Amino acid sequence: MEVREIMFAAFALVIIVFSVLTVTSRRILRAAVSLLFVLIATAGLYFLLNYQFLAAVQLTLYAGGIVVLIIFSILLTSQISQKFEPIEWKKALFSALAAIAGAIVVITTILQHTFAADTAAAMEVNMHVIGKSLLGTGADGYVLPFEVISVLLVAAMIGAIVIAKKGSPFKEEEKNK
Amino acid sequence: MNILSCLVIIPLLTITGILLVKDARQARVVSAIGMGIQLITAFIIVFMYLSERKAGNTDQMLLMSSYEWFRSLNIYYTVGVDGISVAMIALTSIVVSAGVFASWEMEDLKKEFFISLMLLATGVFGFFISLDLFTMFLFYELAVIPMYILIGIWGSGPKEYAAMKLTLMLMGGSALLMIGLFGIYFNSAPDGGELTFNIIEISKITIPIQAQRWFFPLTFVGFGVLGALFPLHTWSPDGHSSAPTAVSMLHAGVLMKLGGYGCFRVAMFLMPEAANEMAWIFIILTTISVVYGAFGAIVQKDLKYINAYSSVSHCGLVLFAILMMNRTAMTGAVIQMVSHGLMTALFFALIGMIYGRTHTRIISEMGGLMKVIPFLGVAYVIAGLASLGLPGLSGFVAEMNIFFGSFEHPDTFHRVATIIAITSIVITAVYILRVIAILLLGPVRDPHYSEFNDARWYEKLSILALLTGIVYIGMIPSGLSGIIRDSIMPIVEKLM
Amino acid sequence: MNSGIPLEYYLIVATIMFFIGVYGFLTRRNLITILMSTELILNSVNINFLAFNRFLFPGKLDGHFFGLFVIAVAASEAAVAIAIIINIYRRFTSINVENVNELKY
Amino acid sequence: MADFGYTVWILIVPFVTFIVLGLFGMKLKARISGLTGTLGLAIVTVLSYATAFRYFLGAGLADGIYQKIIAFNSTWLTLTDRLHIDMGVLLDPISVMMLVVISTVSFMVHIYSLGYMKGEKGFERYYSFLSLFTFSMMGLVVATNIFQMYIFWELVGISSYLLIGFYYSRPSAVAASKKAFIVTRFADMGFLIGILILSFTTKTFDFVTLTDLNGPAITSTGGAVFLGMSVMTWSMILIFVGGAGKSAMFPLHIWLPDAMEGPTPVSALIHAATMVVAGVYLVARMFPVYYFAAPEALQIIAWVGAFSSLFAAVIATTQTDIKRVLAYSTISQIGYMIFSLGVSGYGGPEGLGFMASNWHLFNHAMFKALLFLGAGSVIHAVHSNYMTEMGGLRKHLPITNITFLIACLTIAGLFPLSGFFSKDEILTAAFHHDKVLFAIEYLVAGLTAFYMFRLYFSIFHGHDRQYDHTPHESPATMTVPLIILAIGSVFSGLLPFNRLVTSDGAPFESHIEWSVAGPSLIIALTGIAIAWVMYRKENTLPDRLASTFKHSYKWAYNKFYIDELYLFITKKIIFRRISQPVAWFDRHIVDGTMNGIAWVTQTVSNRIKGLQSGQLQQYGFVFVTGAVALVLFFIYLIK
Amino acid sequence: MSLDNFLMMRHELVLTLAFLIILVAEVFTGEKKKEKFRGFAVVLFAVVTAIGMLPAPEGTLFGGMYQAGRTTTLMKNILNIGTLIVLIQSFTWLGRPENRDRIHEYFMLLISTLLGMYFMISAGHFLMFYIGIELATIPLAALAAFERYKNRSAEAGIKLILSSSLSSGILLYGLSMIYGTVGSLYFADIAARPSTAALTILGFIFFFSGMGFKMSLVPFHLWTADVYEGAPVSIAAYLSVISKGAAAFIFIIILYNVFPVIIDTWQKVIWVIAVMTITIGNLFALRQKNMKRFLAFSSIAQAGFFLLGFIGGSKLGMTTVIYYALIYIFTNLAAFGIVSIIAEKTGKESMDDYDGLYRTNPKLSLTMMLAMFSLAGIPPVAGFFGKFFLFAAAAEKGFYVLVAIAVLNTIVALYYYLLVVKAMFINKSENPITYFKSDFMSKLGLAICIAGIVVTGFASGLFEMIRNLSYGI
User: Fold this and answer.
1) I need a labelling partner for D359 at 20 to 30 A (CA). Which of A54, C105, D375, D625 fits?
2) Interface test with chain D among A88, A100, A105, A109, by most D beta carbons within 10 Å
3) Are the Cβ atoms of D614 and C105 closer than 8 angstroms?
4) How far apart, in whole angstroms, are the C-alpha atoms of residue B218 and residue B221?
């Protein structure tokens, strides 16, 4: 077994185990931490695939940003020590059935498919290439989505603010129905 | 501009006029004037038609004109008339005018009432002049929908239920019809070329028989619902009994004719092969309609119900005759449409007027009305006699054409059906005379009746307009019959 | 370069993760944990994209950039979602999804 | 051939009178409208007589045969390519004879009514309806084709309806008129179907063509056989059903006695002299077709006629309402005529029955109208219809008494009154045809004499009853018609019918056959004698007889319960077993299906509301399973 | 970039500019002037709409990442008109004291979602499409939760955003499979490299589910009613017409231009989904009493009708979808407009409250009736023409059974639309909504809608124009 394979197996194992923990853990902070592990393991997979840049982004933005955001909100809204009540078995059963059935169907389909690889030479993925592509305006250039995503981020920010903003001239209680 | 389009425009202008006047009482005057002009226009059209024919114009449709509408789908606003449409137009204009006068004393929301009525008229007139299936369908639905409002607001009894049922069943019919129309349209150019909605164009080609087998029954049933085809007639008793007077008049008098008219103008004319193949199914149904409606009418207690069932029977006869597919029977069908239109409108007008005085429509609660309101009584008797097919009144002419035409059919099945249908004339006599006996004759039932006024001027106007038509057709039928016989020829030839 | 591990393995891992996320979405009561489940789902998709990109179409960077943008979108989505969740917490004094059902039928 | 175009006016005049009186009668004075009607009829009568004289005295004759003359004809409505309805005037011996009969009786009735109906509300309506009737009846008899006949047939029916129901605030009159119309309408349906079949086979409505010996009707093989008889026979039987309905033959006779609810002059005109013989006229009109193409039908006709005459005569002996007695007597006499046609042959002396039938029709019109008008005069005087409330009126009503007596003698068939001649010819024809039928008719002749004199003695003899006021003789407007008609019934037996009205238009010789006439005269006298014994003076004999034959009497008195049978069929079967179930079926099954569809939709809608539970996770569940199911379905189940 | 390129992207650029103007304006407007800003924003948007109408070149930009053509321009213009009406209608609501401090944000969020839709429509690459769809959704969730003080608004927001993230997850998964089997995410490439492999179809179906979510097709529709009911009326309206319309537009473009190869499959899928959508939508709408919820279910059923235009895969189909969308915008906005006005003035949203409305507010009732008739497809209003042509498009390719199911469903639909008419015109009420005067903006909004409802049907020129512009990009 090569190192790569061992690493892959390790990352895969981490991903699956902690994914399961994320969705089953009855303590919310543990779930969040499990998610963190999943995200980190995913970044590991990206490394394996030789996408270092993206792995870095994954670590900083996802593991760093989103998870922190989530943890903050957990702190704001939940009591950390509190354990969730166990899930109603019916709900769990049916959801599990649906998920498993879905997984089986999809995996079967994937395994039946013979993937045809492109003959084109592999592209070196370094910062130079990424930067050029990201700001490229021609074919395979991603400047437009890059611009648009900035609008999205601004809009999301505004949206979050609008909701979180405290109304000044108006008494909250009066309209609370 | 084509004079036929006036028939659509005048009611619309009348609506505008009604909207403009301030006083609700003026609304009725405006509508009366509008419909007066409409009546005159209709008769001008009749004369124009006749003079064109006399001048030797042998085209199937006269006074035609066509405006492009939806170019890419080849939809045109095409109008034109033949003898049959002319007859229906004349009928409609008479009934609508009579309806306006019959609703002279409408109490609530007068303006709205007349607007809806005019809208209904627009739809009906539009339907009869249309030669393009699309516009025809448009006007068809346009005619149906104001019924909901009219019955719902100004009706009586379980009006909401009745209005809803009527609207849904009729629109259900038109839903089937729509599929049928698509079937026709998309098969209208079997050898390539441009698809068309134009009836005349389609009649020149042969729609593939497999398609016909599907779309003929859809189209026929679609129109048949409006023509009270058994077992899809049940909207009729409830709808008619709840509707206000003028609406019952228009609906039974004219709207139900849309069904019969459509059945042969569209279903049979355009898909003759399937019509020949499948006629037997519908003949059975219509024969049932004819007898069943008549029997149903015998035991009814409500005047309007009696008339509604009677309409089922009579309209069943229309469809029955159409399905016989020969010239005489189909001529009879058209005459029956006109005749039934007039007399049933008259019936409903009279019932409305009687109801206005006695405030009941249950026949057993009335009696001896002939003494107190002789004008209405006599008119009712005449309408009744027309309905039971007395010679000299319109019903007879129609029925004889139908029976003799149907019996001409070489097939025994058709003749047996004819004989079964004939029995309806006795049953009709039974229920008509039963009503007359209970309602009009006998001793005056209630001393309060002496306070009743006989018909007012506007009521008389309404009644006389309809009576004139009934008597005219009954006495001198050859004019109408001749026009229709000529015009029915292309259709019959196609069916042969 | 990737000789050892077949593409399918990546895909299977991703798919399993995807459906675990789905399972979480369907069963978790806490709104925040539901949000976390969706993050799992998005992550699994990213693995797919990158694996395909690397194994099959290494000549371009379609999958790579898609993954990048998905991360960004996920972030903004999370931001708005969390803002709403906090508002929910204010309004309902609970972020149990089963309680958030004033609107139904 | 002579121009008879003016005969159209026979139709137009009464029609115009009808319209004028119908539309404007309300505004006229009662007297004026009565006179208008009478004047109109006077014109018709003059025209009819003129036509008759011209026709019989040569204008109608060609090659020694009375021709069928189409005086006027025009197409009214085209039905099919070959069938068209014409309106016209056909003159031949029987139609001309009918013109005379109708105009005479109608004119008499018009005059009579001036007195009888005086002061009635709706006087102008009455005259308007009378005109309508006259118009329709005239149209019927001069019809050039069977369809025109049918049209006027219906019109006669409606005028009868209107006149029976003249006193429309009286429930019994309303019921009677309704019954009359519906029963005849039912029969007319048979007539119509008969016409349908006939015209389908022969492609014509025209009488001239139909009765042409080489025409399609007679030469046709009769078409397909149905239930053992040819289609032609069936059509002729159905046509006869129409005739039987109008002529009140058993079992369609039930309307006629009830029809006596109408004013008495109307009974005289419509229900005695003219309309009810339309059936006879119809068979006579179609006689060649019957004889050659449908002999089975003719046989049926003979039996129906014979049976009806006996049946009605028996009932007549028990009734106490004088108008009803006359009504049953009418049925009986029409039965005679129908029967006579049934036993007749065609051509020359063979057609004796045909001639006799028409002759009897003519005579009957005179004396029966006279009887009814006389009865009217009596009723006018005592204000009652029941003979039990009458007696000894001969002192009070001398003219009525005498004319009534003449009529009774005539109907009994005493020599040399007219009834004797025609009845004798009928019996002779029957004698040559069928002995059983002949015997029946003999019996009927006796019964007729008996019940007529029972009636006569009960009214005019015996002693006075308690009258509200002393009965007095009717005014001249009423008695003059009585006298005229009495003269008519005495002398019409002298008319040479065998020269004028024959089956093929050719005159033939006939003479009284005393071997038949003698016994019949004796039987009639016997009948009169029995009546003398029983009713001349008040005694207990009738009651004792009635109690001796209790059951038979009860059955006859109750008209053999035919009315009840009809009531059962209409009320129990048509109403209860057909109409009500149909109405129920319509409301609950057919309509119920429609409502059911709506109900199902609503219910489903209510049941599935749980799908929209408000639970986000459930939405997700549906979402995911939906997507997975689609994948499964479209990738693995259908490729 | 040349001027032509700018012109090609003018919709997006102008809109971005508007977005920036509002952003800057927010900084510089004082508390008191905020209210007046509403008018400015509406006018600004009207200008944007007008600029969109200008003729412009066609073509692709950014190496095929962005494409603009006659069809997309037309679609964007239609969306512009609809959005303008929504903005006009939300005018009064924005004037409420509790909303005053967030007027700018409202406009910005709305404009950003519209921008997302533009990019979605003009996408030439699935990445652009994805970002567009997210940009069109995420701010909408914020808008749905806009009424901070209402539980229901918050609930609507969370339901929208979480459902949408699930759906976009599934959509993305589908896209990844398409990417894996085809090898590119450029539309042009995918169309050029046909693949009918099972995995492609799986990818397509997952993608379809995501689109189904946006268009609220059954079984992906369950969020719809809850969100419509909870969200502010103008947002519900926006969701039901603009968002749905945009989704329909891009969906039909993708179906026709990207997946023509697997047309057999997607026709079957659409057949099934259309039947389910129409039927379920109708069955639920049948029993609704809350007007917003009622309109939500009705809009689900309407989405099913849209699919009838999709299924043929023909030029007629695309034409009718666009045409119907235009009609639907006017119609549904009229209905929502009235609901919003009444809710604004009286706070009543239940159908029972509408009893006897005609007697007190005849004009509103008539408008509502027109809208209902148009939704039900009753002539002579536009809905009739739209439905007729939609059905014709399906019938053209022989889907008669589908058309039959659809038309029978229109009867059920007619029933519940008539219920509204019945409430307003026929029912009598003890305490009807009293007479009130609407302000200018409400009237303006309704007037535009009425004009649209009445004219769009008859104006065959419009239909022909759309037909000439449709098909392709």
Assistant:
1) D375
2) A105
3) yes
4) 5
Question: Percent of chain E having pLDDT more than 70?
Answer: 99
Query: Would you call D623 and E287 a contact, using CB atoms and an 8 Å cutoff?
Result: no
Chain D, window 576-635: residues with a beta carbon less than 8 angstroms from a chain E beta carbon: 598, 601-602, 604-606, 608-609, 611-612, 614, 616, 618-620, 622-627, 630-631, 633-635
- Residue A62 counted as domain residue: yes
Lookup: tokens for A108: 């079967």
Looking at beta carbons, which pairs linking D516-522 to residues 24 or more positions away fall under 8 Å? Answer: D516/D424, D516/D427, D516/D428, D516/D431, D517/D415, D517/D420, D517/D424, D517/D427, D517/D428, D519/D442, D520/D413, D520/D423, D520/D424, D520/D427, D520/D442, D520/D445, D521/D413, D521/D414, D521/D415, D521/D420
Phi, psi of D504, rounded to the nearest 5 degrees: -115, 10
D526 Cβ neighbours under 8 A, 6+ residues apart: D446, D449
Q: Do D81 and B292 touch (CB under 8 A)?
A: no
Q: Report the Cα–Cα distance between both ends of chain C, in Å, rounded.
A: 55
**What tens digit of pLDDT does each residue of D549-579 get?**
777 777 777 777 777 887 777 777 777 788 8
Q: How far apart are CA E53 and CA E78, in angstroms?
A: 10
C19 part of a folded domain: yes
Residue A33 resides in a domain: yes
- Which chain D residue's Cα is nearest to A102? D628
Interface of C with D (CB under 8 A): 22, 25-28, 34, 97-98, 100-105
Domain tally, chain C: 1
Residues of B with CB under 8 A from a CB of E: 68-73, 75, 134, 137-139, 141-142, 145, 148-149, 152-153, 159-160, 163-164, 167-168, 171-172, 175-176, 178-179, 182-183, 185-186, 214
Asked whether residue A115 is domain-assigned, the answer is no
* Residue A111 covered by a domain: no
Residues A139 and A92 in one domain: no
3-state helix, strand, coil in chain C (%, to 5): 75, 0, 20
* Number of other residues whose CB lies within 10 A of the CB of residue D176: 23
In this prediction, residue B206 carries a pLDDT of 86
**C75 belongs to a structural domain:** yes
| Cα gap D520→D522, rounded to integer Å | 5
**Reported ipTM exceeds the 0.85 cut:** yes
In a domain, C101, yes or no: no
Same domain, A24 and A92: yes
Residue C1 in domain? no
Whether the per-residue pLDDT at E249 is higher than 80: the answer is: yes
Distance CA D459, CA E224 (A): 96
Same-domain pairing of A21 and A66:
yes
Chain C partners within 8 Å of A165 (Cβ)? none
**Structural domain boundaries enclosing C48:** 7-92
Q: pTM for the whole thing?
A: 0.89
Any idea what the CATH number is for the domain that residue A90 is in?
Answer: 1.20.120.1200
Considering only CB atoms, which chain C residues are within 8 Å of A66?
A: 39, 74-75, 78
Domain carrying residue E138: 3-469
Alpha helices in B303-445 (DSSP H): 303-324, 327-358, 369-372, 374-387, 394-408, 412-435
**Residue of D620, D630, D634 with shortest CB distance to E163:** D620
Amino acid at site A118: D
- Can you say how many angstroms the Cα of residue D247 is from the centroid of all Cα atoms in its chain? 4
* A95 shares a domain with A135: no
Q: How many domains does chain A have?
A: 2
pLDDT, residue D639, reads 60
> In sequence order, which residues have a C-beta less than 8 Å from that of residue E343 and are 6 or more positions away?
E233, E349
Same domain, A73 and A30: yes
Q: Work out how many CB contacts closer than 8 A connect B with E.
A: 84
- How many domains does chain E divide into? 1
Domain extent for A143: 127-177
